Amino acid sequence: MKRRKFLKYSVTMVAAAACSTSFADNRQPYALGLQLYTIRDALSKDVKGTLKKISEYGYREVEIYGYDGKFYGYDPSDFKTLLNDLNLKSPSGHFDLNKFFTPGSGNEELVRYTDLCISGAEKLGQTYIVWPWLDPSMRDAESFKKLIDQLNLIGERITAAGLKFAYHNHNFEFVDHDGLMLYDLLLQRTDPAIVRLELDLYWASYMKQDLTELFRKNPGRFELWHLKDRDRKDPDLHTFMGNGDIDFQAILPLAHAAGVRHMYVEQGNNYIPNDMACVQKSAKYVKEYLLKG
């Protein structure tokens, strides 16, 4: 090889190696997780086979949704065995706490269901119980203030049991109500020691939130994240990771300041061609560009 060509080749290879090293260093040290609501259709047909596939795709953590004393038809201890056999863990779950909240009513049913959730989470080996949703009829400021009282109540109960409690956002918490934003109320009126936050990055981006400022003012409160990409043509639609317009490579370095412990891929709609194909594509992208856990 002539000297000029050799030098050109050497420079190219060094540059490529440097880029590769820089790229690897930019990935964050978290296990690849999946919110199982993403594959609800596949799970409804074959729980074990579906979980086996997502394990093969590289997912190592799953966040469950729903609980009635069983997880997808399995007793908690049996479901834990199934996950263990597939090299999966479930650090957190979306439980149906919202179904037991009615502003102005008593909290006996909510407390009773909370205790059921604590039992199920303990048997499954989970750390977090998450409040996942709020009915649209209860999204006014006064109802939300009453919700916050309940969040503190059950957060204290869950914490006393040795677990953690978190609240999951959507878009409505970031809507301006005559200068008042419900998410600000949530941050101000909940006790950080008993109410953590699961931040849905799709909805935060959709509502144009300044994440750097949010984490600066509230460091360490956002222990769970949802990684959900946004369709480039229709912002109301989701898409598989890397196919949308949210710049996750810019967001992920903020995870340490936010206090993140676990991240979950999620996609709630727009499955092209189907849910399992989407989570497989998401896993490939996230492992290649975002996470190295």
From TrEMBL:
Q: Which domain of life is it from?
A: Bacteria
Q: Which Gene3D superfamilies match?
A: Divalent-metal-dependent TIM barrel enzymes (3.20.20.150)
Q: Mind telling me which Pfam families this protein's record contains?
A: AP_endonuc_2
Q: Which SUPFAM superfamilies match?
A: Xylose isomerase-like (SSF51658)
Signal sequence extent: 1-24
**Which keywords accompany this UniProt record?**
Signal
Q: Which residues form a coiled coil?
A: none
Positions of the Xylose isomerase-like TIM barrel domain: 52-267
Do the record's keywords include Transferase?
no
Q: What's the protein name?
A: TIM barrel protein
Its taxonomic placement starts with:
Bacteria, Pseudomonadati, Bacteroidota, Sphingobacteriia, Sphingobacteriales
